[in-house]
Design goal:
Number of domains: 2
CATH superfamily of the largest domain: Zn peptidases
Radius of gyration: 24 Å
Structural class: alpha+beta
Number of helices: 9
CATH architecture of the largest domain: 3-Layer(aba) Sandwich
CATH class of the largest domain: Alpha Beta
Order of helices and strands: HHEEEEEHEHEEEHEEHEEHEHEEEH
CATH topology of the largest domain: Aminopeptidase
Shape: elongated
Length: 379
């Protein structure tokens, strides 16, 4: 099995690992998990397969150090988004013009290839600390894999190799999704006073959401993330043009900043829902939290940040740019588990888009930086 990141990436792209929760009927992670498990075993790692959810395996490869050193976790996800609208052949990698193209090249099989090669190369030098390669299922939907993995493994620090354009990501927003169901009473459209209009309640809720948006935008900006956000994602209601709407359902998304808890955000949204329901006599409302993930922020003075910064400067001749991300990653779960972490990944484009690619130069640079980091951190 190859130990060159470009060739390894082409082999990973060739394996269909589309998340079945995003594309029903897709194969998910079993085939790519098998491939990575065999690769890790061939390169001297002790391999464990985690599969609490049948058909959704994660692979953890551990290289034990001699003892007395720090342990480092390298995290990457095996799944990709779907390919229904992908331009060209999504599972045949194309290497041209300094790029490798194919589904997952950027998000995040490029990161997987760099993790595997860097870990195996670093292992050629005796290390004191353990290297833990955590290749997980389901990051693109519910993060089942990282959640399961963290129930069994910990480390002194972690790097999540999500694509970051070779910039050091030290913070990202969290998110929460809510479903609101407004229930009124149907009536003939010519006699609206006999009904309870759920869409009128939805209008009041939309106004409340807009007022919350303005409040969030008026608060002090986070230096890396800006403001929190809120929006209505979907809305449906009513039965026909001649009937007072007996029900209306909305989904809301709230993107959060470090320091905001999901419980606090839910209370904030619940207050808007109660106010909207109260504005229409007889209207009732329910609120359900669909999912919630806290924001992430690394300590810029932590050992892992300083080690990666030094490794990046040694590999490239300049320190990395530091940034925050508007989207969520599994770094949020890792940090919640008490493991200092950061995000550093390849350059390219097309995440979740109709064409996807990674630059060859960034793939090689990331592999170099990760190898140097492992050697230094686990020495």
């Amino acid at each position: 099995m190859t130990s060159e990141p470009i060739q390894l990436l082409t082999e990973l792209i060739a394996i269909d690992s589309v998340n079945p929760d995003l594309a029903p009927g897709a194969p998910g992670e079993p085939a790519i998990a098998d491939f990575c498990a065999a690769w890790l075993a061939e390169h001297g790692f002790t391999v464990e397969r985690l599969e609490a959810t049948p058909g959704r395996p994660s692979i953890v490869g551990v290289l034990r150090g001699a003892g007395g050193g720090r342990s480092l976790m390298l995290n990457g996800h095996l799944d990709t988004v779907g390919v229904a609208s992908y331009v060209g052949e999504p599972f045949t990698a194309r290497v041209a013009d300094g790029k490798v193209s194919g589904r997952g090249a950027f998000d995040m099989k490029g990161g997987l290839a760099s993790i595997l090669v860097a870990a195996s190369r670093a292992a050629a030098t005796p290390l004191a600390g353990d290297v833990i390669v955590a290749l997980v299922a389901d990051e693109e939907f519910g993060s089942l894999g990282t959640a399961e993995m963290l129930g069994r493994y910990t480390a002194d620090a972690a790097i999540v190799a999500e694509p970051s354009e070779l910039e050091l990501t030290l913070a990202h927003r969290g998110f929460a999704w809510f479903e609101v169901v407004l229930t009124g009473r149907a009536a003939h459209g010519s006699l609206p006073e006999q009904g309870v209009d759920a869409i009128a309640g939805a209008g009041a809720l939309l106004a409340g959401v807009d007022a919350l948006r303005r409040r969030l935008e008026g608060m002090p900006r986070h230096p890396l993330l800006g403001h929190g956000t809120v929006r209505v994602s979907t809305i449906s209601g009513g039965v026909d043009a001649a009937t007072v709407a007996p029900s209306c359902t909305l989904t809301l998304e709230r993107r959060t900043l470090p320091g905001e808890t999901i419980d606090t955000v839910e209370a904030e949204v619940r207050a808007l829902v109660v106010e909207a329901a109260d504005s229409v006599p007889g209207l009732t409302a329910t609120l359900e939290r669909l999912v919630g993930r806290a924001a992430f922020e690394a300590d810029p003075e932590s050992v892992i940040v300083s080690t990666v910064t030094a490794a990046f400067a040694a590999a490239t001749g300049a320190p990395p740019v530091v940034r925050g991300e508007p989207f969520w990653t599994d770094a949020g779960l890792i940090a919640e588990a008490g493991i200092p972490c950061l995000v550093l990944g390849v350059d390219g484009g097309g995440a979740h888009a109709d064409e996807e690619w990674v630059t060859v130069a960034s793939l090689e640079t990331l592999t170099d930086v990760l190898e140097r980091t492992i050697r230094d951190f686990c020495a």
